Amino acid sequence: MDFCILSAGIGSRFSPFSDYANKTLAPFPFEPLISQIIEAIPKNNRIFIVTGYLNRDLEEIVKEIHSDRDIIISQNLAYRETGMGDSLLSIIDDISESFVVIPNDGIYRIKLEDKLSIYESDIVVGSSLNTYDKKDYTVLKCNTNNDVLGLKRFDIVQDSNEENLTSKLFTGFLYVKNKHKYKEYLSKYPSGQREIYFPIKDYIRGNKTIKSLDLDWVDCGTYEKYKRELKNLVDYDFSKSNETLLIYKDKRVYKIFSDSDISIKRVKKSDMYPMAFPKCRELPSKFGYSYEYMEGNTLYEESSRENLENLLKFLETNLWEMKPENINLYNDGYSFYKQKTIKRINLLEEKFNFNQIKSINNQKLNYISLIPPFKFEEIISNIHPSPIHGDLQYDNVLVDSNKNFLLIDWRHEFGSNIKYGDLYYDLAKLLGGILLNYKKIKQGKFEASLSKDGRNIFYKYDEDKYVKEHQEIIYDFHFRNNLNINNTRKLLSLIYINMAPLHEPPFDILLLAFANKIFWSND
Asked: For 2-226, which CATH class?
């Protein structure tokens, strides 16, 4: 018996993710949603996947990470004008007599092979007693024997005269015993409007046996529902709406972005510095890339003095230029430091009333605004031109059992310059990730909130034991290489301010507090 996953549609309710990737690639928490579905299907059964919208990346990733499965991919090129029923009709002649349709946006916390024995009816529909808003679903009317006697969705209604029926939600899971009869019913409906549940009312009218099967199911059909379920899996959702990280069973890493320029430039940069960054392969759409998974730990997990010292040596040898390159980065610095920061502050002003915030942990602010008065011209004039990582913090440094380093999640450009950036920025990012442990942030090991009257920021964060020692190593590195530690420290506050609007509460509040605290400690 074949299983069918219909994933041709645009997924408009899954924006902003679906603006740049097929929604079945949404990470859950790191494996794509479609992998959760494939793994629930018995290994000996064929899988048909119908793609359409943003299909190329989806097809490559599925074929690569599920190469051990018998998967047949077909395309519905008219996906913009047609529905799931049309996608199913496009493959129905090729699939087995009896088949199962599984929706592409639900999580089934079961192995479907455990349910195969129930497939004796003409139709079996997956059902749920979850109390989601029924107006968003096809509602099944079922008796105590789980017979489906009626259904309702918008203008598709098939009522039953029986009393005491239970309302259940149709999850999109559908078993069909005879594809020819189902095809006959589905083909009656106009192309472009066909949905897979339409024939159910025809089966009811024909007195066919239709059973509901209650499933442990989670609906991820909209971006809001998906994010809600994701929050149940992680301590703190550190993800960004404009980029995606996928890791499948330690095989390969995929990064996908809403802006293809980021992906293209990251791949170019990795080619420029092959000893520092992994070898990347562009995805077909060029909106993302992939590289081979490296077994190892982040520097947060391997935070020894020796590892930090060896990392600095690695960077000196494979990336950084300790003698400033003879290149003028003023325009790039102006764009990167000043213009970008002003844009980020504007985003923050949409979230916070800075005129109202007067204190942090009940200590009066040192300045009329929570946002520090950055001296951009001074920062730009102190740029040390060098190849850089661009987001150099412990979570983006992997170390394996042989003490080899690999840098991940590098920034694609400094201003508009792919090759060069400011060495002080890399050092500041490194120091910033020491002072504020982003792994602990992801684990929710901090507190931050804004008082009800909006006047005070409260935060609590426990510093790691190694912070002082690692700061001393960074400071000593500056001294040995004739670098000015003040230039690095002045960037710390700027970095936290730029990060804040990209993250959700309460982390954005903590970043604002740290930015203010560090700026005035430098003064």
From this structure: alpha beta
